[in-house]
Amino acid sequence: MHYDFKMKLNKIDSQQYRNLLVPEIDWILNEAQELFIKLIAEPRNKSINGFEKSQRNTEDIRSLIAENQALARVTNTDLYLFPSEYWYYLSGTAQIRKGDCPCVEASIKIRQHDDDFEESPFDSSSYEWRTLNAVFNKTGLRIVKSSSIAINGVNITYIKIPRYMHNAEDFRAGGYSIPGRAPLTGTADCELPSHTHREIVDIAALIATGQIQAADYQIKMAKLQLNDIKA
What are the domain boundaries of the chain? Predict the structure, then answer.
């Protein structure tokens, strides 16, 4: 990806921007990867079908989907904590029971904080209808239910934060540090499928071109539009 980035940023058969350092290229590539994932997984104007509206979208970020992961409960509360790698919620289930009735699996429905869903007989959490209401908390999911329903466990499927990809071994003493992270050494490749790498580099080249105010910004933008990427 470093090689591809340099080829796309520089003019053909030149090294016009050879002074960019490895940490700077890594930073831009990770920014491009984050933007690529957001545009697919959770765009601001989200379609009703979500990121799985096409097989291509699904294939683009399938490697970041963590399926059916158990959440840890905060003792004596109905709050279940997200893992540190959590990024975007996709779906969830819970194992619930009521009185002497057997434990069953219920689907989790995400509600808005200002909705009066628990006051409605049609929208409240229900053992009989196998549904459980929840709202997002700053640290996890808060289950909203009556005291008659007991929860044995909560599992969710989500898109995880990708690891920070880098080429630290090619920088000076074989490593470097950036704010908020442990020192980086060796290499860490992109976790996304290989067919996405060139598109990520295209976004990175566009970002860099805009930052250095290069004249071919519109050409790089037009290439992204061929892939239906609205950067």
Answer: 2-61+164-226, 64-160
Q: Give the side-chain half-sphere CA count within 13 A for 4.
A: 14
Instruction: Write b or e for each residue in 143-155: b if 16 or more Cβ atoms lie within 10 A of its Cβ, otherwise e.
Output: bbbeeebebeebb
- Concatenating the DSSP letter of every residue in the chain gives -HHHHHHHHSPTT--TTTT--HHHHHHHHHHHHHHHHHHHHS-SS--TTGGGGSHHHHHHHGGGEEEEEEPEEPTTSSEEEPPTTEEEEEEEEEEEEETTSPPEEEEEEE--TT--GGG-TTTS-BTTTTEEEEEE-SSEEEEE--TTEEEEEEEEEEEEPPP--B-GGGSTTTEE--TTSPPEES-B---S-GGGHHHHHHHHHHHHHHHTT-TTHHHHHHHHHHTT---
pTM, entire model: 0.83
Q: How far apart are CA 83 and CA 102, in angstroms?
A: 29
Tell me the HSE value of 225 on the side-chain side, using a 13 A CA sphere.
Answer: 6
For residue range 109-120, list pLDDT tens digits in order: 999 888 777 777
> Could you read off the pLDDT of 116-132 as tens digits, one per residue?
777 777 889 999 999 99
Distance (Å, whole) CA 67 – CA 112: 24
Separation of alpha carbons 18 and 32, rounded Å: 20
Give the range among 74-83, 151-160, 214-223 with minimum mean pLDDT.
Answer: 214-223
**Angle at CA of residue 78, ends 74 and 80, nearest 5°:** 55
Q: Which tokens go with 33?
A: 């990867």
